[in-house]
Amino acid sequence: MDFSLNEVQEMLADSIEKFIDNEYPFDARQTYAASESGFSADVWKTFAELGWTTVPFSEDDGGFNGDQVDVMVMMQRFGRGLLVEPFLANIVLAGGILKRVGSAAQKQQWLQGIMSGELQATLAFTEPQARYDIANIATTATADGADWVLNGQKGLVFNGGTSDLIIVPARTSGKQDAESGITLFAVPADTAGMSINAYHTVDGLRAAELTLNDVRVSRDAVLGGKDEGFVALDETIDDATLAICAEAVGIMQVLKDKTVEYSKNRSQFGVPIGSFQALQHRMVDMLTVCEQAQSLLLWATMTVAEGGAEAKRAVSSIKYLVGTSGQTLGEEAVQLHGGMGVTWDLDVAHYFKRLTAISQLFGNADWHLDKLAA
Amino acid sequence: MHVTFSPGELVFQEEVRAFFRDEYPEDMRQKRDKGMELDPDDQIRWQQLLYKKGWAGINWPVEYGGTGWTPVQKYIYATEEANANAPLVIPFGLSMVGPVIYTFGSEEQKQRFLPDILASKVWWCQGYSEPGSGSDLASLKTRADLVGDHFVVSGTKTWTTLGQHADWIFCLVRTNTDVARRQEGISFMLIDMKSPGVSVKPIILLDGVHEVNEIHFENVEVPVENLVGEEGKGWTYGKVLLQHERANIAGVARSRYRLRRLRNQVKSSVRGAAPLSGDKNFMRRLAAVEVELKALEYTELRTLAAVSSGKAPGPESSILKVKGTEIQQAIDMLYVQAAGYYALPYVPDQYRPDFADQYIGEEAETQSSLRYFNYRKASIYGGSNEIQKNIIAKHVLGL
Ligand SMILES: Cc1cc2nc3c(=O)[nH]c(=O)nc-3n(C[C@H](O)[C@H](O)[C@H](O)COP(=O)(O)OP(=O)(O)OC[C@H]3O[C@@H](n4cnc5c(N)ncnc54)[C@H](O)[C@@H]3O)c2cc1C
Q: By residue range, what is the domain housing residue B212?
């Protein structure tokens, strides 16, 4: 057992921290979030130049040979900086599918572009009626000669409005919520019949509703085996769940630190509000949650990375903790800032909003508690 | 002791129901049911309809044009108002400055201000908090110095809700710094927002809405007749008002309405293999909030019954404020969880009347997180919940 970062992870952590400290102040984040695309193309280029976009891909694929732990190291820091760049959509989601089931040709065609930062990609992981069940897929793909024709709807496609490539899971056989019978398709966003309704999300990021109306792709678009897409989809969503939990833990630590700092500087009744025991105990609780979450995050991520039998429980455990104690921590951070905590101008509210969004993603606390109780 | 309404109360309930059914404007109903904010003009139109009916001054004594209702009648009214999803009356005139003026104001002030407040002809806002004085309100620094027949007011008020629409502001200001207790140097003053030297700067809240403001006073001349009651007694007056504010904040009837709506919503929810009403985790939490709310409903009724009409509620109102806002916030969270992924789209434009594009999600879904974010304020304003607990500890428990 070893909880320390290895040399490479140290370097990665260090370079991300430096980047955020020097080049990603909160007002820059706000500017990028408000821009047309919702993120900075320049920052994304920097991500690629520094090799951050290659981390979880194998050396054979031209990557850095990293695993979930490396992604955790990165995402936790992205959380601290509240980054809006589409790492989750490109690297964890679309990249996660491509690296698992993409053929050599498909990787050449898509993954290279993702790693070099020249191609924007995402995964349409849910549908309006599905709630949190990733197997609930009503979108159909029907064979027509050498082509496939896709019809259906996808919801909350992260960065859907700026993506060149959207990976679309579709039903090729079986019942609407069956795990078998799901096939994954790589669909260029400009394919005829793709209609993308992009919008802002409450956490300052972007997503889109996607309607597929007789979208025709060739058989080369199929990623992995026909009807066999679920495993790759499921593993990728687990990776993504861990990734956003790491982001959440980074956010929680920032919220805790900022609250403690604020309580030392804000005076009422002639003393810093941090001197009131009623508040001290609550900040102690915040610290405890951070420590607990950090521990569970490490266990969960290492368990998944090392292929432990408890991998599924591990993912659900950390997601549950983030969605319960983590969410409460966010509320406490706002509360202890008083009126300042609910203003747009202060960063605290934006960290809180992202934390809230994360709590609803890839299964909320109830969803994961059910899995743990089963 | 009995929990059912008397025949007379049932008749009154019918009258209130009929009023909301027949008089509550259809255009407002539609806007509100779609989760849209009302324009200030709509708000005033509605309050003037209440005035016409004689129901503007719910808590006011009859001699000033109030209803003279019993606590049970007020309870019935609040319930029907919530069930109609009618807008809340903006509290600053009718629930805050009105009672201060009819309790502590001069005869002349009563005649000058009360009729317009009752008729919603003048929009009021509340100028208590300052950048350096939130929880510790008594430390406020806005100065009002007497020069001849007027005060000269300088300072900054902040968090002023809807101050951008206000015609008048009631303020706590410091008229004397040479006092033993800081509270004794504070006075209650009415200031015309059109006075030279008043400027309003917006503060945007976390949901992107312009709801509060920072208001600067630079050598603003205020006639002495705008001082309410005695100089140096503003703190006492202001406290009375805050207790009114706290009781109003509990929002029991609204919470009941929202929980009932949520129960209906989850029965027919379109997300997931089965409706959310089959989800035990979720339904248990919803039921637990219902229990808390039922208890609060009767705590409020007990408090109201103990208070003879017109008299301000005591420190017990702090309990109503703390519990009421905790329940509101718990309900907000339930709505977010019910919405799942569709709590995320930020699409406020689609609830504007001129929206012609494709809708994303259902209203109850996409408005849920904005409401949750915005109402974090409920445990902060009106005296934060921590301050309420300090008050309870000191004045109720004697600690
Ligand atoms: C949306 C909104 C609308 C508002 N509208 C108005 C308005 O119209 N008019 C108006 O005058 N004001 C208004 N307020 C101001 C509101 O009353 C203050 O925000 C509130 O009193 C808290 O003050 P503060 O924000 O300065 O927080 P602070 O007083 O700085 O408090 C920060 C934190 O410390 C805690 N704290 C402070 N003292 C103690 C203590 N002794 N023991 C334990 N904990 C303590 C607080 O509870 C809070 O959690 C509004 C506020 C908001 C957010």
A: 123-232
